[in-house]
Design goal:
alpha/beta; 12 helices; 15 strands; 35% helix; 23% strand; elongated; disordered N terminus; signal; Solute-binding_3/MltF_N; Ectoine/hydroxyectoine ABC transporter substrate-binding protein EhuB; Ectoine_EhuB
Length: 264
């Protein structure tokens, strides 16, 4: 017999409570969601999911590692229950999944050589100074540079921020663009490079701030709404920052933006 919850808003939350475990899709990306050296699941998103699910009556979370590009297809084919990978909310993704409100906001920043010899502060500077520009595979920063007028074919694509730091230190690139958080963390180990002040990229002619969140199947609005309620309590109490702090997040990354705003 069909009950109201079969049709309206889904019954995944009840199912997870009965099973006692929620499966999290992660993409092995530090600091968002990854397996640490001891084989334990950690990262800002899994740690936050752990707290919220406990409050919702689901005792455990279990990782399902996949590639970043497979997170949304994997979610929609039910390989896991929720994406816990710090995924940016954007209109294209909002057509395929529903998001919680963001748990963090993120600006961009550059890795440059010590002293920032070319004076690079934003993507326009990179274009005007004809700097050798690098960023990571599949990063949002590719589109931001192209929008500023950089030739897509001239961008040096490297696997991640560690490779980006290396490219700047060895002179293969003048600048590597990434999130303020990942660039800030990786240059701590360097005596040849530094990180620029975080800035807002220009998107569609306007300054843009990214927000990262948890993704759910479009039918599971009950779970998303319950998750959001607990997330907002953690924001209001200041507990959210305490959970995210060990992963390099600061007050600057806290946000009141909503998924609705970011979905456009």
């Amino acid at each position: 017999m069909a009950t109201a919850s079969d049709t309206e808003g889904g019954e995944l939350l009840e199912r997870l409570r009965a099973q006692g475990v929620a499966r999290l899709g992660i993409a092995g990306e530090i600091p968002f969601g990854y397996i640490d050296r001891n084989g334990e699941l950690t990262g800002e998103a899994p740690e936050l999911a752990r707290v919220i699910f406990k409050r919702l009556g689901v005792d455990r979370v279990q990782p399902v590692p996949t590639e970043f590009g497979s997170l949304i297809p994997g979610l929609n084919s039910q390989q896991f229950d929720i994406v816990a990978a710090g995924m940016y909310i954007n209109p294209e993704r909002c057509e395929q999944v529903i998001f919680s409100d963001p748990d963090y906001q993120m600006l961009d920043s550059f890795i440059v050589r010590k002293g920032n010899p070319l004076g690079l502060r934003n993507y326009k500077d990179v274009v005007e100074k004809k700097a050798k520009f690098a960023t990571g595979t599949g990063y949002a920063e590719i589109a931001y540079a192209v929008e500023a007028g950089y030739e897509r074919g001239d961008i040096l694509i490297v696997p991640d921020q560690v490779a980006g730091l290396n490219a700047v230190e060895t002179g293969r690139a003048d600048v590597f663009a990434g999130t303020a958080l990942t660039t800030r963390e990786v240059v701590k180990k360097s005596n040849k490079a530094e990180v620029t002040e975080p800035f807002k990229p220009i998107v569609g002619g306007k300054p843009h701030v990214d927000g990262g969140a948890f993704a759910f199947r479009p039918s599971e609005t009950n779970l998303r709404d319950a998750f959001n309620r607990e997330l907002h309590k953690l924001k209001d109490s200041g507990e959210l920052l305490r959970i995210l702090k060990p992963f390099g997040f600061t007050e600057n990354e806290m946000t009141d933006m909503t998924a609705k705003e970011l979905c456009g």
